[in-house]
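Entry 14. Structure prediction run on the chain below.
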Amino acid sequence: MPTMEEIIGRQQIMLENLNENYSHLLGVMAKVANGEVSPDRLTVDLDELSWKVKSIGTNGGTHGQKG
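Output returned:
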């Protein structure tokens, strides 16, 4: 059975990862808002904490983040 410190440590890591992922997502959303990225190039799945931005000029290449 994990100790309270181990549980808290795992929760802290999860929160840090969520913070990093959402910060990155907000950056991508800001690029959409200011016109750097077209909204039709962005796919977001909040259930999976993932998003993809389709690259221009490639055969469906994407990049993104998965939490």
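Residues 14 and 67 are 9 Å apart (CA to CA).
Filed with the rest of this week's runs.
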